[in-house]
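Note to self: keep these together.
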Amino acid sequence: MPPTRISQKSPYVTRAAAGAAASALVLAVGASTALTALAQDAAGVVGGERLGRPDVQVAPLSGAPALPPELTGRSWLVADAATGEVLAARNAHQPMPPASTLKMLFADTVLPKFDRAQEHQVTAAELANLGAGSSLVGVKENLPYRVEDLWRGVFLSSGNDAVHVLAHMNGGLQQTVTEMQARARALQANDTRVLSPDGYDMDGQVSSAYDLTLFARAGLRNADFRSYCATRTAHFPGGLDKLTGQRTSFDIANTDRLLGKYPGLIGVKNGYTTNAGATFTGAAERGGRTLLVTVMHPEAQGKVYDEAASLLDWGFAAAGKVQPVGQLVADTAAPAAGAATGPATGPASAAATGPGTTGAEAAADSQLPPWSRPPVLSGGPGLAPAVWTAAVLGSALTALAAARTVARRRTAPVPAPAVTGSPAGSPAGRGAAAHRGGATALGGATGLGGRGRRHLARRARAALRSARTRRSRAASGPL
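Structure:
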Protein backbone atom coordinates (compact mmCIF):
# COMPACT_ATOMS: atom_id res chain seq x y z
CA MET A 1 0.00 0.00 0.00
CA PRO A 2 1.62 3.32 -1.06
CA PRO A 3 2.04 5.83 1.74
CA THR A 4 -0.58 8.54 2.01
CA ARG A 5 0.99 11.95 1.91
CA ILE A 6 -0.29 15.06 3.66
CA SER A 7 0.07 18.67 2.65
CA GLN A 8 2.17 20.80 4.95
CA LYS A 9 -0.75 23.27 4.84
CA SER A 10 -3.26 20.81 6.34
CA PRO A 11 -6.05 22.65 8.22
CA TYR A 12 -5.32 20.41 11.20
CA VAL A 13 -1.84 21.93 11.63
CA THR A 14 -1.92 25.26 13.47
CA ARG A 15 0.37 28.01 14.67
CA ALA A 16 -1.53 28.55 17.90
CA ALA A 17 0.89 26.75 20.24
CA ALA A 18 4.24 27.92 18.90
CA GLY A 19 5.24 30.14 21.81
CA ALA A 20 3.96 27.72 24.47
CA ALA A 21 5.82 24.80 22.94
CA ALA A 22 9.08 26.74 22.83
CA SER A 23 8.73 27.77 26.49
CA ALA A 24 8.10 24.20 27.55
CA LEU A 25 11.19 23.02 25.69
CA VAL A 26 13.46 25.49 27.52
CA LEU A 27 12.53 23.82 30.80
CA ALA A 28 12.51 20.25 29.52
CA VAL A 29 15.53 19.75 27.31
CA GLY A 30 17.84 22.72 27.72
CA ALA A 31 18.75 25.85 25.84
CA SER A 32 20.28 24.25 22.76
CA THR A 33 17.22 22.12 22.04
CA ALA A 34 14.97 25.11 22.75
CA LEU A 35 16.74 27.18 20.08
CA THR A 36 16.19 24.39 17.59
CA ALA A 37 12.54 24.22 18.60
CA LEU A 38 12.12 27.95 18.10
CA ALA A 39 13.32 27.59 14.53
CA GLN A 40 10.97 24.64 13.97
CA ASP A 41 7.95 26.37 15.51
CA ALA A 42 8.41 29.32 13.21
CA ALA A 43 7.02 27.07 10.48
CA GLY A 44 3.76 26.71 12.46
CA VAL A 45 3.62 22.96 13.17
CA VAL A 46 2.72 21.92 16.70
CA GLY A 47 5.77 20.17 18.15
CA GLY A 48 8.18 21.18 15.40
CA GLU A 49 8.31 21.66 11.63
CA ARG A 50 9.67 18.18 10.88
CA LEU A 51 6.60 16.56 12.40
CA GLY A 52 4.50 18.19 9.67
CA ARG A 53 6.47 16.51 6.92
CA PRO A 54 5.32 13.26 5.29
CA ASP A 55 7.24 10.01 5.51
CA VAL A 56 9.85 8.99 8.08
CA GLN A 57 11.63 11.60 10.19
CA VAL A 58 14.69 10.55 12.21
CA ALA A 59 18.04 12.22 12.99
CA PRO A 60 20.58 9.51 13.86
CA LEU A 61 23.96 10.23 15.43
CA SER A 62 27.02 8.02 15.30
CA GLY A 63 26.23 4.50 16.48
CA ALA A 64 22.46 4.89 16.28
CA PRO A 65 20.51 1.70 15.54
CA ALA A 66 18.56 1.51 12.30
CA LEU A 67 14.80 1.80 12.42
CA PRO A 68 12.86 -1.49 12.12
CA PRO A 69 12.81 -2.42 8.43
CA GLU A 70 9.13 -3.39 8.02
CA LEU A 71 6.99 -0.61 9.42
CA THR A 72 3.71 -0.52 7.52
CA GLY A 73 1.76 1.85 9.76
CA ARG A 74 0.50 4.82 7.77
CA SER A 75 1.31 7.01 10.78
CA TRP A 76 3.47 6.36 13.85
CA LEU A 77 5.55 8.10 16.49
CA VAL A 78 7.91 7.17 19.33
CA ALA A 79 8.78 9.67 22.08
CA ASP A 80 10.37 9.99 25.49
CA ALA A 81 7.56 10.39 28.03
CA ALA A 82 9.64 12.42 30.51
CA THR A 83 11.29 14.97 28.22
CA GLY A 84 8.68 14.90 25.46
CA GLU A 85 11.37 14.48 22.81
CA VAL A 86 10.06 12.81 19.66
CA LEU A 87 12.74 10.33 18.63
CA ALA A 88 11.26 9.36 15.26
CA ALA A 89 7.95 9.68 13.46
CA ARG A 90 6.09 9.18 10.23
CA ASN A 91 3.17 11.43 9.23
CA ALA A 92 2.79 12.41 12.87
CA HIS A 93 0.04 14.97 12.22
CA GLN A 94 -1.94 13.05 9.60
CA PRO A 95 -5.63 13.05 10.66
CA MET A 96 -7.05 9.51 10.70
CA PRO A 97 -9.96 7.71 12.43
CA PRO A 98 -8.73 6.86 15.94
CA ALA A 99 -11.11 4.02 16.89
CA SER A 100 -11.06 3.16 20.63
CA THR A 101 -7.74 4.89 21.28
CA LEU A 102 -9.91 8.01 21.57
CA LYS A 103 -11.07 6.56 24.90
CA MET A 104 -7.77 7.83 26.34
CA LEU A 105 -9.03 11.39 25.80
CA PHE A 106 -12.40 10.40 27.27
CA ALA A 107 -10.72 9.04 30.39
CA ASP A 108 -8.35 11.99 30.74
CA THR A 109 -11.38 14.30 30.58
CA VAL A 110 -13.95 12.48 32.75
CA LEU A 111 -12.02 10.17 35.10
CA PRO A 112 -10.99 12.87 37.63
CA LYS A 113 -14.62 13.88 38.20
CA PHE A 114 -15.98 10.86 40.07
CA ASP A 115 -14.82 8.98 43.14
CA ARG A 116 -13.96 5.42 42.19
CA ALA A 117 -16.11 3.99 45.01
CA GLN A 118 -19.23 5.91 43.99
CA GLU A 119 -22.18 3.72 42.91
CA HIS A 120 -24.51 4.53 40.04
CA GLN A 121 -27.82 2.90 39.08
CA VAL A 122 -27.74 2.30 35.33
CA THR A 123 -30.86 3.18 33.35
CA ALA A 124 -32.07 1.89 30.00
CA ALA A 125 -31.63 5.35 28.45
CA GLU A 126 -27.92 5.29 29.26
CA LEU A 127 -27.47 2.12 27.22
CA ALA A 128 -29.50 3.30 24.24
CA ASN A 129 -28.08 4.30 20.86
CA LEU A 130 -24.93 2.22 21.03
CA GLY A 131 -23.40 1.84 17.60
CA ALA A 132 -23.96 -1.41 15.74
CA GLY A 133 -21.13 -3.85 16.41
CA SER A 134 -19.86 -1.85 19.40
CA SER A 135 -17.49 -3.58 21.77
CA LEU A 136 -19.32 -4.13 25.07
CA VAL A 137 -18.32 -5.17 28.58
CA GLY A 138 -21.84 -6.26 29.55
CA VAL A 139 -23.38 -3.47 31.65
CA LYS A 140 -26.98 -4.25 32.67
CA GLU A 141 -29.76 -1.73 33.16
CA ASN A 142 -31.50 -1.21 36.52
CA LEU A 143 -28.47 -2.42 38.47
CA PRO A 144 -25.88 -0.45 40.46
CA TYR A 145 -22.24 -0.29 39.38
CA ARG A 146 -19.25 1.25 41.07
CA VAL A 147 -17.37 3.84 39.05
CA GLU A 148 -14.16 1.81 39.25
CA ASP A 149 -15.92 -1.20 37.67
CA LEU A 150 -17.16 0.96 34.82
CA TRP A 151 -13.63 2.25 34.19
CA ARG A 152 -12.30 -1.31 34.10
CA GLY A 153 -14.94 -2.01 31.50
CA VAL A 154 -13.65 0.96 29.49
CA PHE A 155 -9.96 0.07 29.66
CA LEU A 156 -9.99 -3.73 29.62
CA SER A 157 -12.95 -4.56 27.37
CA SER A 158 -13.09 -1.23 25.53
CA GLY A 159 -16.77 -1.27 26.46
CA ASN A 160 -18.80 1.38 24.70
CA ASP A 161 -21.65 0.60 27.09
CA ALA A 162 -19.47 1.61 30.06
CA VAL A 163 -18.41 4.77 28.21
CA HIS A 164 -22.04 5.76 27.60
CA VAL A 165 -22.98 5.28 31.26
CA LEU A 166 -20.05 7.41 32.45
CA ALA A 167 -20.81 10.03 29.80
CA HIS A 168 -24.42 10.28 31.01
CA MET A 169 -23.14 10.65 34.57
CA ASN A 170 -21.03 13.53 33.24
CA GLY A 171 -24.07 15.38 31.88
CA GLY A 172 -24.75 13.51 28.66
CA LEU A 173 -23.05 12.47 25.44
CA GLN A 174 -22.98 15.92 23.86
CA GLN A 175 -21.72 17.57 27.04
CA THR A 176 -18.93 15.00 27.24
CA VAL A 177 -18.00 15.44 23.57
CA THR A 178 -17.80 19.20 24.10
CA GLU A 179 -15.55 18.77 27.14
CA MET A 180 -13.34 16.26 25.30
CA GLN A 181 -12.88 18.70 22.43
CA ALA A 182 -11.96 21.46 24.88
CA ARG A 183 -9.50 19.14 26.62
CA ALA A 184 -7.91 18.28 23.27
CA ARG A 185 -7.42 21.98 22.57
CA ALA A 186 -5.87 22.52 26.00
CA LEU A 187 -3.41 19.73 25.21
CA GLN A 188 -2.75 21.38 21.80
CA ALA A 189 -4.04 18.25 20.11
CA ASN A 190 -5.28 20.25 17.15
CA ASP A 191 -5.57 17.34 14.72
CA THR A 192 -8.40 15.85 16.80
CA ARG A 193 -12.11 16.27 16.11
CA VAL A 194 -14.40 14.54 18.61
CA LEU A 195 -17.90 13.40 17.61
CA SER A 196 -18.43 10.41 19.93
CA PRO A 197 -16.89 9.77 23.36
CA ASP A 198 -16.15 6.10 22.64
CA GLY A 199 -14.24 6.47 19.35
CA TYR A 200 -16.96 4.69 17.33
CA ASP A 201 -16.61 5.37 13.61
CA MET A 202 -18.33 8.62 12.67
CA ASP A 203 -17.78 10.63 9.51
CA GLY A 204 -15.28 13.37 10.33
CA GLN A 205 -14.06 12.01 13.67
CA VAL A 206 -10.26 12.02 13.45
CA SER A 207 -7.06 12.22 15.49
CA SER A 208 -3.36 11.67 14.78
CA ALA A 209 -0.41 9.72 16.11
CA TYR A 210 0.90 12.95 17.65
CA ASP A 211 -2.38 13.75 19.40
CA LEU A 212 -2.98 10.20 20.67
CA THR A 213 0.50 10.27 22.20
CA LEU A 214 -0.38 13.54 23.96
CA PHE A 215 -3.53 11.92 25.38
CA ALA A 216 -1.57 8.97 26.73
CA ARG A 217 1.10 11.17 28.27
CA ALA A 218 -1.51 13.35 30.00
CA GLY A 219 -3.60 10.40 31.19
CA LEU A 220 -0.68 8.53 32.71
CA ARG A 221 -0.17 11.39 35.16
CA ASN A 222 -3.36 10.21 36.89
CA ALA A 223 -2.77 7.26 39.23
CA ASP A 224 -6.18 5.72 38.52
CA PHE A 225 -5.72 6.01 34.75
CA ARG A 226 -2.34 4.30 35.05
CA SER A 227 -3.77 1.56 37.26
CA TYR A 228 -6.72 0.78 35.00
CA CYS A 229 -4.71 0.63 31.78
CA ALA A 230 -2.16 -1.70 33.44
CA THR A 231 -4.80 -4.15 34.72
CA ARG A 232 -4.71 -7.46 32.89
CA THR A 233 -7.78 -9.22 34.33
CA ALA A 234 -10.62 -8.27 36.67
CA HIS A 235 -14.00 -9.41 37.98
CA PHE A 236 -16.94 -7.49 36.53
CA PRO A 237 -20.41 -7.36 38.11
CA GLY A 238 -23.02 -9.42 36.32
CA GLY A 239 -26.79 -9.73 36.65
CA LEU A 240 -28.89 -11.27 39.41
CA ASP A 241 -28.97 -15.04 39.86
CA LYS A 242 -32.58 -16.18 39.29
CA LEU A 243 -32.37 -18.85 42.01
CA THR A 244 -30.55 -17.03 44.79
CA GLY A 245 -31.21 -13.39 43.87
CA GLN A 246 -27.52 -12.69 44.47
CA ARG A 247 -25.37 -10.55 42.18
CA THR A 248 -23.13 -12.60 39.90
CA SER A 249 -19.78 -11.64 38.39
CA PHE A 250 -17.61 -12.71 35.49
CA ASP A 251 -13.99 -12.27 34.44
CA ILE A 252 -12.82 -9.74 31.89
CA ALA A 253 -9.36 -9.53 30.30
CA ASN A 254 -7.46 -6.63 28.78
CA THR A 255 -7.55 -6.75 24.97
CA ASP A 256 -4.08 -5.15 24.79
CA ARG A 257 -2.01 -8.05 23.47
CA LEU A 258 1.31 -6.54 24.56
CA LEU A 259 0.30 -6.20 28.21
CA GLY A 260 2.06 -8.90 30.18
CA LYS A 261 4.13 -9.91 27.16
CA TYR A 262 6.30 -6.90 26.37
CA PRO A 263 8.76 -6.29 29.24
CA GLY A 264 7.93 -3.15 31.18
CA LEU A 265 4.73 -2.33 29.32
CA ILE A 266 2.46 0.02 31.28
CA GLY A 267 -0.54 0.16 28.90
CA VAL A 268 -2.19 2.21 27.32
CA LYS A 269 -5.01 1.60 24.77
CA ASN A 270 -5.72 -0.30 21.60
CA GLY A 271 -8.53 0.04 19.08
CA TYR A 272 -9.95 -1.37 15.88
CA THR A 273 -12.79 -0.54 13.53
CA THR A 274 -13.37 -1.34 9.89
CA ASN A 275 -12.84 2.30 8.94
CA ALA A 276 -9.88 3.05 11.23
CA GLY A 277 -8.11 -0.26 10.96
CA ALA A 278 -5.92 -1.09 13.94
CA THR A 279 -4.61 1.65 16.23
CA PHE A 280 -2.46 1.35 19.32
CA THR A 281 -0.79 3.67 21.82
CA GLY A 282 1.51 2.10 24.39
CA ALA A 283 3.92 3.09 27.14
CA ALA A 284 6.81 1.01 28.45
CA GLU A 285 9.48 1.54 31.09
CA ARG A 286 13.00 0.17 31.03
CA GLY A 287 16.07 1.24 32.98
CA GLY A 288 14.29 4.23 34.49
CA ARG A 289 13.22 5.52 31.08
CA THR A 290 9.63 5.57 29.81
CA LEU A 291 8.79 5.63 26.12
CA LEU A 292 5.50 6.29 24.35
CA VAL A 293 4.60 4.81 20.98
CA THR A 294 1.61 5.18 18.68
CA VAL A 295 0.95 3.17 15.52
CA MET A 296 -2.05 3.83 13.25
CA HIS A 297 -3.45 1.71 10.45
CA PRO A 298 -0.74 -0.83 9.53
CA GLU A 299 -1.31 -3.14 6.57
CA ALA A 300 -2.73 -5.89 8.77
CA GLN A 301 -4.56 -5.65 12.09
CA GLY A 302 -2.21 -7.96 14.01
CA LYS A 303 0.86 -6.01 12.90
CA VAL A 304 -0.02 -3.04 15.09
CA TYR A 305 1.41 -4.81 18.15
CA ASP A 306 4.51 -6.13 16.38
CA GLU A 307 5.33 -2.71 14.97
CA ALA A 308 4.71 -0.98 18.30
CA ALA A 309 7.00 -3.45 20.07
CA SER A 310 9.75 -3.05 17.48
CA LEU A 311 9.57 0.75 17.75
CA LEU A 312 9.84 0.53 21.54
CA ASP A 313 12.88 -1.75 21.21
CA TRP A 314 14.44 0.73 18.81
CA GLY A 315 13.66 3.69 21.08
CA PHE A 316 15.33 2.11 24.12
CA ALA A 317 18.39 1.17 22.03
CA ALA A 318 18.58 4.65 20.51
CA ALA A 319 18.86 6.51 23.83
CA GLY A 320 21.46 9.26 23.42
CA LYS A 321 22.15 8.22 19.84
CA VAL A 322 19.55 10.27 17.99
CA GLN A 323 18.61 13.92 17.96
CA PRO A 324 14.92 14.70 18.56
CA VAL A 325 12.91 15.54 15.47
CA GLY A 326 10.18 17.27 17.46
CA GLN A 327 8.61 17.74 20.85
CA LEU A 328 5.43 16.71 22.68
CA VAL A 329 4.11 20.10 23.75
CA ALA A 330 3.14 20.90 27.32
CA ASP A 331 -0.40 20.77 28.71
CA THR A 332 -1.67 24.35 28.94
CA ALA A 333 -4.52 23.55 31.36
CA ALA A 334 -4.23 23.38 35.13
CA PRO A 335 -4.02 19.79 36.46
CA ALA A 336 -7.39 18.23 37.25
CA ALA A 337 -8.25 17.45 40.87
CA GLY A 338 -6.43 14.33 41.97
CA ALA A 339 -4.67 14.03 38.61
CA ALA A 340 -1.23 13.42 39.99
CA THR A 341 -1.86 12.20 43.46
CA GLY A 342 -4.11 9.20 43.40
CA PRO A 343 -7.81 8.56 43.62
CA ALA A 344 -9.81 11.37 42.14
CA THR A 345 -12.35 13.31 44.10
CA GLY A 346 -15.98 13.55 43.18
CA PRO A 347 -19.37 14.08 44.72
CA ALA A 348 -19.01 11.18 47.10
CA SER A 349 -15.62 12.15 48.40
CA ALA A 350 -16.52 15.83 48.57
CA ALA A 351 -19.37 14.98 50.91
CA ALA A 352 -17.08 12.98 53.16
CA THR A 353 -14.45 15.68 53.51
CA GLY A 354 -14.61 19.38 54.07
CA PRO A 355 -14.29 22.36 51.76
CA GLY A 356 -10.78 22.73 50.41
CA THR A 357 -9.82 19.13 51.17
CA THR A 358 -8.06 17.42 48.27
CA GLY A 359 -8.39 13.75 47.39
CA ALA A 360 -4.78 13.14 48.41
CA GLU A 361 -5.29 14.83 51.77
CA ALA A 362 -8.50 12.93 52.44
CA ALA A 363 -6.81 9.63 51.54
CA ALA A 364 -3.87 10.41 53.81
CA ASP A 365 -6.17 11.49 56.64
CA SER A 366 -8.14 8.23 56.40
CA GLN A 367 -4.96 6.32 57.25
CA LEU A 368 -4.54 8.17 60.54
CA PRO A 369 -6.07 6.98 63.81
CA PRO A 370 -9.32 8.83 64.60
CA TRP A 371 -7.87 10.98 67.35
CA SER A 372 -5.14 12.42 65.13
CA ARG A 373 -7.22 13.27 62.08
CA PRO A 374 -7.74 16.97 61.39
CA PRO A 375 -11.18 18.31 62.34
CA VAL A 376 -13.73 18.59 59.52
CA LEU A 377 -17.11 20.13 59.11
CA SER A 378 -19.96 17.72 59.65
CA GLY A 379 -23.48 18.21 58.35
CA GLY A 380 -23.27 21.91 57.63
CA PRO A 381 -22.51 24.87 59.90
CA GLY A 382 -21.24 24.33 63.40
CA LEU A 383 -18.31 22.57 64.99
CA ALA A 384 -17.53 18.92 64.38
CA PRO A 385 -17.47 16.65 67.47
CA ALA A 386 -13.68 16.74 67.71
CA VAL A 387 -13.58 20.54 67.64
CA TRP A 388 -16.46 20.84 70.11
CA THR A 389 -14.75 18.45 72.53
CA ALA A 390 -11.51 20.41 72.32
CA ALA A 391 -13.37 23.64 73.10
CA VAL A 392 -15.03 22.09 76.19
CA LEU A 393 -11.73 20.66 77.45
CA GLY A 394 -10.01 23.99 77.00
CA SER A 395 -12.76 25.82 78.89
CA ALA A 396 -12.68 23.29 81.75
CA LEU A 397 -8.90 23.46 82.11
CA THR A 398 -9.01 27.26 82.08
CA ALA A 399 -11.65 27.27 84.84
CA LEU A 400 -9.57 24.90 86.99
CA ALA A 401 -6.48 27.04 86.57
CA ALA A 402 -8.39 30.17 87.50
CA ALA A 403 -9.90 28.50 90.58
CA ARG A 404 -6.49 27.36 91.81
CA THR A 405 -5.06 30.85 91.36
CA VAL A 406 -7.90 32.38 93.34
CA ALA A 407 -7.54 29.75 96.08
CA ARG A 408 -3.80 30.38 96.40
CA ARG A 409 -4.39 34.07 96.75
CA ARG A 410 -7.06 33.55 99.43
CA THR A 411 -4.95 31.17 101.52
CA ALA A 412 -1.91 33.46 101.56
CA PRO A 413 -1.15 34.95 105.03
CA VAL A 414 -2.68 38.36 105.49
CA PRO A 415 -0.52 40.71 107.59
CA ALA A 416 -2.31 42.29 110.56
CA PRO A 417 -2.66 45.98 110.45
CA ALA A 418 -0.12 47.73 112.59
CA VAL A 419 -1.84 49.02 115.76
CA THR A 420 0.67 50.98 117.72
CA GLY A 421 0.42 50.55 121.44
CA SER A 422 -2.64 48.26 121.37
CA PRO A 423 -2.35 45.19 123.60
CA ALA A 424 -3.72 41.90 122.54
CA GLY A 425 -6.72 42.11 124.78
CA SER A 426 -7.67 45.60 123.69
CA PRO A 427 -10.47 46.20 121.16
CA ALA A 428 -7.94 47.04 118.47
CA GLY A 429 -5.97 43.89 119.17
CA ARG A 430 -9.10 41.77 119.09
CA GLY A 431 -10.01 43.32 115.71
CA ALA A 432 -6.62 42.37 114.24
CA ALA A 433 -6.90 38.80 115.49
CA ALA A 434 -10.40 38.55 114.08
CA HIS A 435 -9.10 39.76 110.70
CA ARG A 436 -6.35 37.10 110.67
CA GLY A 437 -8.85 34.40 111.61
CA GLY A 438 -11.18 35.57 108.88
CA ALA A 439 -8.49 34.92 106.27
CA THR A 440 -8.41 31.26 107.21
CA ALA A 441 -12.16 30.94 107.50
CA LEU A 442 -12.89 32.48 104.11
CA GLY A 443 -10.04 31.10 102.01
CA GLY A 444 -8.62 28.05 103.77
CA ALA A 445 -8.73 24.47 102.60
CA THR A 446 -11.70 23.72 104.77
CA GLY A 447 -13.56 26.92 104.00
CA LEU A 448 -15.61 28.14 101.05
CA GLY A 449 -12.56 28.24 98.76
CA GLY A 450 -11.98 24.46 99.09
CA ARG A 451 -15.61 23.65 98.36
CA GLY A 452 -15.50 25.96 95.30
CA ARG A 453 -12.51 24.11 93.86
CA ARG A 454 -14.16 20.74 94.35
CA HIS A 455 -17.33 22.06 92.71
CA LEU A 456 -15.38 23.32 89.70
CA ALA A 457 -13.54 19.99 89.41
CA ARG A 458 -16.84 18.10 89.44
CA ARG A 459 -18.20 20.40 86.73
CA ALA A 460 -15.09 19.89 84.59
CA ARG A 461 -15.35 16.11 84.92
CA ALA A 462 -19.04 16.29 83.99
CA ALA A 463 -18.18 18.39 80.92
CA LEU A 464 -15.57 15.85 79.84
CA ARG A 465 -18.05 12.98 80.20
CA SER A 466 -20.65 14.92 78.22
CA ALA A 467 -18.12 15.69 75.49
CA ARG A 468 -17.13 12.03 75.17
CA THR A 469 -20.80 10.99 75.00
CA ARG A 470 -21.56 13.54 72.27
CA ARG A 471 -18.47 12.52 70.30
CA SER A 472 -19.39 8.85 70.53
CA ARG A 473 -22.93 9.56 69.31
CA ALA A 474 -21.65 11.68 66.41
CA ALA A 475 -19.20 8.96 65.36
CA SER A 476 -21.92 6.30 65.35
CA GLY A 477 -24.17 8.41 63.10
CA PRO A 478 -27.91 9.11 63.31
CA LEU A 479 -30.05 6.41 64.84
